[in-house]
Amino acid sequence: MKLLHLLVINAIKDIWKYRSFLALILVVMLIDEVASHVSPKLSQFIEKPELSKRMADISSYTYTQLVDQLIALGGHIEIFLVLLGGFFLKALLSLWPSSDMRRMHRQERSGFGVLDSLLQLRWKQVGWDFVAVSITCLTSAIGLVIAFLIGLLFWSKNQSPYSAIFLLVTAACLWPVIIAGFSYSSKIAIISNGSYLQKLKVFVLLLSKLSIFIPSWLFYGFRIYLEAFILGVVPIVLSRYVDTWLIRIIIVSLLICPIYAFLKMVSFKLFLYLFRNQSLVREEYAKYYRESSL
User: In angstroms, rounded to a whole number, what is the distance separating the alpha carbons of residues 11 and 87?
Assistant: First the structure.
């Protein structure tokens, strides 16, 4: 019950206390939606496969076309520009709210404070975020390659229509870990003290410590599918009644903003709870831990 109170009740209280955080989340959502709409997509550089819902088609595409198309992607300089732009967008949309929540939990936040949270960000924090995101992507890629090779063994023997199942299941299982890594990277990045190596030692606990890995996997798995449901249903309903794209995005953001802000706040409090025994984190939020009796 204490954990539920820390994560849920206190999250609601903090959002109510710092109501300007809702404005920040609204801005973040609008930036994300607009950027997603106008930015170039990776799909424009790769031929879109025509897949039916049958596993045989998915397996055939995975082991006869996918690798060639991924290699072809590497020949486009635009791909690297898109990925780099995507990272900086992620850094802005993740580090800015994290910086704001850091100030809240250190009781340094006063007034509107949203712009101050942005101005407190430093390039070295962006650099650390890049390191952590790269580690997350690399470890996930290794897992996917292993799953791909296992499936390839089955495909090469008898072209089993279910050869891609292991790869798909692995990708689904890794997705919450990837999102957790992206989330924790920004939360560790904005810690004021500590070297890159000290922060790295804290970050890798996500993958090396079960007491952190399992709750993170469960929470972010739930969060992913909840957000997917909300972001899927609301726009579909609105699209029937609102024709203008920009107005539709604004309405969607306004409707979803409180839920998204709540999930952001809960994820920050979960981070503080799971990493409470790490001196780097504990020193940064000493007053919060004392008042929360953690």
Answer: 28
- pLDDT digit string, tens, across residues 239-274: 667 767 667 677 767 777 787 788 888 899 999 999
Instruction: Quick: pLDDT tens for 118-169.
Output: 778 788 888 889 999 999 999 999 999 999 999 888 888 877 777 888 888 9
Say how far apart CA 258 and CA 76 lie, in whole Å. 39
**pLDDT > 70: percent of the chain:** 76
Torsion of CA 270, 90, 199, 285, to 10 degrees: -40
Give the pLDDT confidence score for residue 26 in this predicted structure: 66
User: What secondary structure does DSSP assign to 216-276, as a single string?
Assistant: HHHHHHHHHHHHHHHHHHHHHHHHTT---HHHHHHHHHHHHHHHHHHHHHHHHHHHHHHTT
